[in-house]
Design a protein that fits this description.
About 40% of the residues lie in helices and about 25% in strands. It is α+β, with helices and mostly antiparallel strands and about 280 residues long. A hairpin with a 5-residue loop joins strand 2 (about 25-35) and strand 3 (about 40-45).
């Protein structure tokens, strides 16, 4: 985790430019662009209400004021198409399954029109620095309507975040009671690494289980289940150890919020919860 750095600020913002046809006729669309290098982030309708980085920071500062949050920093995905703000939860003695945890409220925004403003929760177990991210099941503020940073809106973020994180913790804490064996571990490896929708043949399963990815995953799982027990909680943490420490991935992906790391973590949690 020490290699994953958050930006202390957002040194750029966005601008909207009208689009024209090759015959120089105006259209009903506009381009959302970075104002530092003119990179186009998305093409949206003329009704689309952009939510700027400046407004994003203002929203984060409003959430910070109500506490117990402290802005930790920002990260950008896909060259700025998505911007995530991480606010450290400063509640004392945060625990997950009896283990110390660092937790962040994540407020995300897209500049390409792909999603609304959204809230997430990112956890890091202190004992191993394993990172896991989940989107709180609450989406709001379509850009077409704009966003007004009023007190009730800011309080709504905190309320929904608290509800979402408590639900996530309850789910994760049930995993310690679910025992696992070697066959279940192999089932998880096949589920994570077998991309075909049809069932794999015996030879295909053998090939997957003997792959470098599967062997690396298995080493991580063995390590965590030895520490946390041969249960679904240890199994899940084996995967988050792999995605946090063993995968060769973008070091700017603080909190495992995107890409293959986030996908594997989400699939592992789904598998473990269904045991």
């Amino acid at each position: 985790m020490s290699s994953q750095k958050l930006k202390t600020s957002l040194a750029w913002d966005i601008k909207a430019q009208p689009l024209f046809t090759i015959t120089n006729q105006s259209t009903s669309a506009k381009a959302i662009m970075r104002n530092d290098d003119n990179r186009i982030l998305g093409i949206v309708s003329e009704k689309y209400k952009a939510f700027t980085n400046r407004e994003h920071l203002k929203l984060c500062r409003s959430v910070e004021k109500i506490g117990p949050f402290k802005i930790e920093g920002f990260t950008e995905l896909q060259k700025g198409k998505t911007v995530l703000a991480f606010l450290r939860n400063n509640q004392p003695d945060l625990k997950l399954a009896g283990l110390d945890v660092k937790e962040y409220l994540v407020i995300g925004n897209s500049h390409d029109g792909s999603r609304r403003l959204f809230v997430g929760s990112s956890q890091t177990l202190v004992r191993c620095e394993n990172q896991f991210y989940a989107i709180v099941p609450f989406m709001w503020a379509k850009h077409i309507h704009g966003v007004s940073v009023q007190n009730d809106f800011v309080n709504g973020i905190r309320t929904q975040y608290e509800a979402g994180r408590k639900q996530l913790y309850t789910q994760l804490e049930t995993l310690s009671a679910k025992k696992v064996n070697h066959e279940l571990v192999e089932d998880l490896l096949l589920y994570l690494l077998h991309s075909d929708k049809i069932d794999a043949s015996y030879s295909k399963k053998k090939e997957i289980l003997q792959s470098d990815a599967a062997l690396n995953l298995l080493r991580c799982i063995d390590k965590e289940t030895a520490d946390l027990g041969h249960n679904a909680f240890g199994l899940f943490n084996g995967v988050t150890w792999y995605t946090t420490h063993a995968m060769r991935r973008n070091k700017d992906n603080f909190g495992n919020t995107s890409g293959l790391a986030q996908e594997l973590n989400a699939k592992a949690l789904e598998f473990c919860l269904q045991l």
